């Protein structure tokens, strides 16, 4: 199994790679990819880290699970490959950006461009079996990604964490709110968005306002 993760993350995550839970997790994932169709493609599992290097992290967005239909997941939460129809949550993210920043709705749902600007697009579980939502949960991924969130919180300052929905909000306990900004809202899924818990949160303009105050480059959403 390809465990290539960008060098910048290794000092903070190397200890996790040596732990029994992680070895068991990789054994499980390797077997799953061998026996079943799984997503994202094996070489894209650690894309969140390979597109957004540790030193560049300015914003963290936390998702739950990769998309589980063919051709969708590309290793970044909420993101899909170029040319793939936008899933409902991503549609609502783009609609909020459109309203918040008067940016036209984009053609591509590929968020690699965000990641390259310092947005860590982290799913709590990094893999999934095709057409079986949550099939790789509780195998160790959550322990690993919690360690990632904590590593960012402990070793960086002034990172903006976007916690959307109940699942993501629970991660607030891993983040030092005295040195980072945490923004929360409902999830962009239709169920939450249509009840009024997503639209109007203005998270994208709030992120850029904070980055400007910090003297950082704003994100081109």
UniProtKB/TrEMBL annotation:
Residues 50-211 form the Uracil-DNA glycosylase-like domain. It catalyses: Hydrolyzes single-stranded DNA or mismatched double-stranded DNA and polynucleotides, releasing free uracil. The keyword Cell membrane does not apply. Transmembrane segments: none annotated. SMART domains: UDG, UreE_C. One of its GO terms (molecular function) is uracil DNA N-glycosylase activity. It is an enzyme of class 3 (hydrolase). The active site is at residue 65. It comes from the Bacteria. GO terms for cellular component: cytoplasm. It is found in: Cytoplasm. Keywords: Cytoplasm, DNA damage, DNA repair, Hydrolase. Belongs to the uracil-DNA glycosylase (UDG) superfamily. UNG family. Excises uracil residues from the DNA which can arise as a result of misincorporation of dUMP residues by DNA polymerase or due to deamination of cytosine. PANTHER family: URACIL-DNA GLYCOSYLASE. This is Uracil-DNA glycosylase. It comes from Algibacter lectus. The lineage of its organism: Bacteria, Pseudomonadati, Bacteroidota, Flavobacteriia, Flavobacteriales.
